[in-house]
Amino acid sequence: MTQYDVIVLGGGVVGAATACALARRNLRVALIERFSPAHDRGSSHGDGRMIRYDYSEPIYVEMAAASYIAWDALAVRAGEPLVKKTGLCNFGPADNPQLAELESTMRTFGLACERLDAAQTHARFPQYRIEPGSETVYQPDGGVVFADRAVLALWRCATKNGVETIEQAYVRDVEVHADRVTLCDTTGRSWTGARLVLAAGGWTAPLLRDLGIVVSLEVTQEQLAYFPPISDIDHRVGTMPNCIDYHTEQPFYCLPMVRIPGVKIGWHHTGPVIDPDAPRTLNTDNIHGVQDFVRRRCPHLDPHPIQTVQCLYTNSLDYHFVLDRVPGHPHIVVAAGFSGHGFKFGPVLGEMLAAKLLDETPPMDMSIFSIHRFEQAVSRRTTA
Ligand SMILES: Cc1cc2nc3c(=O)[nH]c(=O)nc-3n(C[C@H](O)[C@H](O)[C@H](O)COP(=O)(O)OP(=O)(O)OC[C@H]3O[C@@H](n4cnc5c(N)ncnc54)[C@H](O)[C@@H]3O)c2cc1C
């Protein structure tokens, strides 16, 4: 006897958005979460996440366009703003190929973008300093999604749409039958649904292994630090652009002040591999690298952080997402490998995953997210 048409395992931005999308299709949906909404053990917490068109892959530009619309629609339903546009500066040496690629993709999509030299950058954006010979590709639509408020809004929207939301339920066993799945938690409770969406973030790989599927998903502990302004130059969201700095192999990125009185700065993909259940630790090497960046790039910030936050990336081999049916289990869809850039697409990922699960035509081409692209990495272990 199935209690639900679909069970969504994992209540981060992806799971909560998927539960909303499924409930809008008048399905009986359960959303099961080990902790509480917007908790700080996974990947979807904190005051802000960058949203941007600035990708060289057209699919992400399309998804970003749909995401801006979807977040605005959710903001109306939630009765509070969830995104604020603030612009995005992409910095790099004048001949940097990534800047050139971004610029040409923006032009292909007819999106506004400007190329500024150092003097022009300093005149327009005094919060930043770049070296002579470096340039900025500026895109005005860059913005900030108010992360934890957005996750809480998705949970409220899910509940309003009839989703049964179950918190503090740590699922330890996924029992798969041909026509249903039964999930059991550590307290012995169980839930049965005809279909399942696995949106378990950093905890996905072991759940897939239990289903006989091995996909390389490396979990890293990434870190953010907040640096307070030391002058009266405004660093608040809406007055200061985000930045992504391509002067280093792994880019630094900045988000203006939202709730915490400091500019948020991170160093993409530099965190250590971690067991998602391990305690979070302060990464001092990372802090030193980010402080050097602040001294170099942000002349009006105190290089001593007022707060640091740790958070998980779940990295696929190519940093593209895995959004697909689980091989051998057509009634189970997996959503993983968001590799540090999935939050902005939350509501659109929900629609794409619902379409994949229900065999609908997806809102956009999902072939780049196929689990089979790692065929050599996907081995179907014959269960004993
Ligand atoms: C430092 C940092 C900065 C980032 N910056 C950006 C940015 O600027 N822009 C952007 O777009 N993206 C950004 N990201 C990436 C983005 O935050 C993630 O891609 C996104 O939050 C992933 O969401 P998720 O729902 O897959 O994962 P999560 O939020 O981790 O959700 C998975 C959930 O599953 C639950 N779960 C797992 N196993 C079980 C179980 N067995 N039983 C019950 N529940 C379970 C977990 O408790 C968790 O709540 C950043 C990420 C980090 C870490």
Q: Using the coordinates shown, work out and report the CATH topology of the largest domain.
A: FAD/NAD(P)-binding domain
Radius of gyration: 21 Å
Bound molecules: flavin-adenine dinucleotide
Query: Could you give the order of the helices and strands?
Result: EHEEHEEHEHEEHEEEEHEEEEEHEEEHE
Strand content: 25-35%
* The first-level CATH class name of the largest domain: Alpha Beta
The CATH architecture designation of the largest domain is: 3-Layer(bba) Sandwich
Q: Oligomeric state of the chains? A: single chain
Number of E-type strands: 21
- Straight-line N-to-C gap: 27 Å
Number of domains: 2
Q: For the record, what is the CATH homologous superfamily label of the largest domain?
A: FAD/NAD(P)-binding domain
Give average pLDDT, whole number: 96
Class per helix and strand makeup:
alpha+beta
Q: Flag low-confidence runs.
A: 377-384
Summed up, the helix count is 8
Major sheet summary line: 8 strands, mixed
